[in-house]
Amino acid sequence: LEVVCGETTGTLVVYEGQPMFASFGPLADANAVFAMLVQKAGYFSFRKKIEAGEKTLNTSITGLLLEASRR
User: Fold this and answer.
1) In terms of CB atoms within 10 Å, which end of the chain has fewer, N or C?
2) Taking each helix axis from N to C terminus, what angle separates 29-37 and 61-70, rounded to the nearest 10 degrees?
3) Max CA pair span of the chain
4) Residue 53 — pLDDT band, cuts 50, 70, 90?
């Protein structure tokens, strides 16, 4: 998933249903996902065939969404 909000861009890589890593501007991993979720405007696109890379997120998509809803 690629997100563009004004001058800030972000990426969330999911491989086989598991979040691998995320970035949004200077933020990384869970904090990047939380920042993406609170944006009021922007653009997003899905891409196939992205290199999975190193797994630095140690939670599920559900876990990320539940934690974001608590914030």
Assistant:
1) C
2) 60
3) 32
4) confident
- Whether the Cβ atoms of residue 19 and residue 1 lie closer than 8 Å to each other: no
Pairwise pLDDT comparison (68 vs 53), residue with the higher score: 68
pTM greater than the 0.90 cutoff: no
Amino acid at 36: M
Question: Binning pLDDT at 50, 70 and 90, where does residue 29 land?
Answer: very high
Tokens, residue 71: 């914030």
Long-range contacts: 44-48, Cβ < 8 Å, 24+? 44/1, 44/2, 44/3, 44/4, 45/1, 45/2, 46/1, 46/2, 47/1, 47/2
SS3 state of residue 67? helix
Distances 31 to 11, 25, 48 between C-alpha atoms, Å? 12, 11, 24
